[in-house]
From TrEMBL:
GO molecular function, one term: enoyl-CoA hydratase activity
Name under which the protein is recorded: Enoyl-CoA hydratase
EC number assigned by the record: 4.2.1.17
Family per record: Belongs to the enoyl-CoA hydratase/isomerase family.
Superkingdom in the source lineage: Bacteria
Keywords: Lyase
Pfam family, one: ECH_1
Catalytic EC class: lyase
Keyword NAD part of the UniProt annotation: no
One GO process term, biological-process aspect: fatty acid beta-oxidation
Lineage: Bacteria, Pseudomonadati, Pseudomonadota, Alphaproteobacteria, Hyphomicrobiales
Amino acid sequence: MLDIGLPPTLTAEIDGEIALLRLSRPHKRNALDLATIQGLHRFFAHLPSGVRAVVLSGEGEHFCAGLDLEDVVEPDDILEVIHHSQTWHQAFHEIQFGRVPVVAALHGAVVGGGFELAAATHIRVAEPSTYYALPEGQRGIFLGGGGSVRIPRLIGVPLVQDLMLTGRTLSAEEGRVHGASQYLVGAGEGLAHATKLARKIARNAEMTNFAVLHALPRIAASDPAAGFFTESLMAAIAAGTPEAQQRLRDFLEKRAGKVKPGL
Ligand code: 1HE
């Protein structure tokens, strides 16, 4: 258990190098109210130093039904809605650009803000029950949790426009094909698979994981000349760590595992 004052809508547990965080508001389909968003922020900002990867899942029949719609009924003014959205941005930024990789285990509805939350994680594992939707159009609102920045980078602007304009859902299989998830596993296998991936990730060199989270997306979004240069700097920083030197020697002296097909 973590003593960082999480709201009752979040359950956290530490298992060695892995932290398991669960959205725990199943009676509201894990809809995200402000306290939960602030709790997510607090959790990722205060991860114990021994934690090397996080698994995020949802309790009950669905991963997450998105924004708690009660939070946007009768806002006092437009600025209040802007600040609300920025609170989401800060929390999800802490996930995407935090200290450790985050693996999401998806099932059932991954809807609206739930899709935005999933998009802020680094690896998404979906079960066949998963479906993605962006029903903001039906509700008369817009994305506000960074989804218009992150989700098109996963599945492309035309598909986001299709989902938002028509209100249709994307199946688990379609989501896998279009990049909403990297993995599609069997029913009931999502959490175990996500945890297995997280344990594998936790064994990587810390500097490489840092580079994958912080350097890679920025290099990919920059102009190629700046990207090549930043890549060289990052490569030098990573290779210069004692951990890299040890791992390279381990391989050359036949103590390290080889690359094999599969996980
Ligand atoms: C909610 C919410 C919610 C459920 N806010 N209360 N998100 C949506 O538009 C999705 C709205 N939810 C749904 O379409 C359905 O609930 C589900 C398909 C996800 C699940 O259906 P089901 O039949 O399993 O559950 P339910 O009976 O609809 O919901 C159970 C309860 O949760 C019910 O309340 P109750 O008092 O009648 O028990 C629902 O009202 C409540 N509930 N979802 C509030 N989202 C930063 S901007 C992000 C913008 C968005 O996220 S827009 C998308 C919002």
